[in-house]
Design brief:
The structure holds 2 protein chains of 2 kinds. Chain A contains 8 helices and 7 strands. By secondary structure, chain A is of the alpha/beta class. Classes of the chains: A alpha/beta, B alpha/beta. The interface between A and B is medium-sized, with 28 and 35 residues.
Chain lengths: ~220, ~300
Amino acid sequence: MTISEPKPLEEVLASVAGEKRLFLIGCTDCATVVQVGGEPQLLEWKKILEENGHEVTGYLIGEPGCHLLGLRKQIRERQAEVEAADGFLIFSCGTGTQVAVQALPGKPVHPATNTLFLGSVQRFGQFQEFCSACGECIVDTTMGICPVTRCAKGLLNGPCGGTSAEGKCEVDPETDCAWKLIYDQLKAAGAIDRVKKTMKARDSRRKPGRRILAKGEAK
Amino acid sequence: MSLRPALQSGKFIITAEIGPPKGTNIGPAIHEAEEYYKGRVDGVNVTDIQAAAMRLGSMVSCHLLRDKGLEPIMQMVTRDRNRLALQSDLLSAWVLGIENVLCLTGDYPTLGDHPGAKPVFDLDSVQLLGVARGLNEGHDMMGNELDGKPDFCLGAVVTPGGNPVEMQIMKLEKKVESGAEFIQTQAVYDPDLFAEFMQKISHLKAPILAGIVLLKSAGMARYMNKNVAGVFVPEELIKRMAEAGAKDKEAKNAGLKADNQVNTSIEIAAELIRKLKPLCRGIHLMPLGWDKCVPPVLDAAGL
C-alpha cells in the first residue's frame, strides 16, 4: 500500500491560488485506507476550499487513481464538471498525481498529499514501511526481514555498532534494529549460519527510478 | 616503522586518534599530533567527518601527518561516497603516501549537523574492505585491471559490548575474511567483559587493539552509558570522576587551579591499559581533544 499524508493547508491553498474553479480527484484504494483521499476527506476539502474563495466544480474517486484507462473513463463521465475547472487537486499518491496529468493533458494538476513510503497497515491509522522496492529481494537470507529497508543504513552484512541494549536503532530509539530482529528469528530457527556468507554490494541498476514493466518483461 | 611491519613484529601496538577541525585551520591538530604522538604511537587515526558533523577531510590531514613523519591511518566511512568515489579516493590516498585505511560504515547523517544530507551507504564496511583488498590485488570492484596498484594495510572496528554480541562477532569474522589486518574496538571500560569477548573471538587471528576513550567528567561517563550503544562505564569509575570534579570545583571556588579530573582520567586510562595489555595486541587511544594527556597516560601505563 502507498502511504501518503495530507500537505499542509497553506501549501495547498498557495498552489491553487491562481485557479478559482477546482475539480478534486481521490482514490478508492490506498488513499481511502490511509484516509487522505477517500470520499470523506474530499468532502472536507471541498468545504475548506469553498471557505477560502474557491468553487469546486465536482470530484471523483479514482478506481483506483493510478489506473490510467479507468481514470480516463471516469473523467469522460464527468466531462462538464471537468471542463468547467481551471485546475485539479489530486488526493491520491505521487503516482496518482502523474496519472492524472496523463489523463488531463495540458491542465494544471496539483498534489494535495506527500507520498511517504510503501507500507503495511499495522492497525487503524498506523502504517509501517517494510519494502523499498529495490528490485533485488534478499529476505530469503534474512529470515523474511528486509535490512535494505528496515536498517537505516541498509546494511547487508550485519548490524553497525549502534544497536542499543534494548535492541533499538541509534538513528531512532523508537525503531527496532533490523539486525536484532533478524538475529532473533535466526536464533529461534537455529539458522545463524544463513547470514555468515558475505553479501555482495547491491546493483543500483535494478532501481533506476523510471521503469516501465510491460507484460512478460520481468527482467 | 610503518604500521604493517609493526603489527607483524609482535610488539604491543599503540594508536591514537585526532579529529580534523571544522574549517581550514589544520595547523594546531598537526602540531599537537607532532608534539604528543610522535615517537610514542605506531599510528595516528584521522576521523572521516566524525559524528556526521561536516569538517576538514581525513585524506589531506593524513597526508600532512605523513609529511611530519607520523604514520597516518585514514578512516573511511561509506556514508558519504558511492563505490566510484570510495575507490577513487583510495587510489588518491595511496598516491599521497597514505598506507593504512580503517574501513567503517559511519554515523547516520541525522545524528550530525547536516541532518537533511542524502545518506549514501552504497557499500557497507565489509564490502569496502573487500573492495580495498581488490585494489591491493590490482583490480577495481568490477574486475578491471589497474595501472599501478596500492598496498594498503586495512583495518576495521568492532563493538565488544554490542547487542547481540553474536552478530558483532559474525560481522567481525566477515571483516577479517574480507581483508582486515587489524581491529580497533569501541571504548572498553570493563576488563572482565573484554576478556570474555576476547575469549569468544580467539579463533580470529587479526590483532585486536582495545579502544580507550579518556573520561572527561562523571557527566560524560553517564551520558555515554545512556546514549552510546555498546559502551558501559562501571559506577566505580564514575564515582572517582565525580569526586575529582567536586575537588576541582572546590579549588575553583577558592580561586585556585586544580587538575583533579584530568589526573584521575589519566590514572583510570593507565589502569585500564595495564589490565587490558595481557588480553590483546594493543590499544587505540581516543582522547577526544585531550591529546596532551596521551604521553602521561602512556607513561603511567608503563608504555
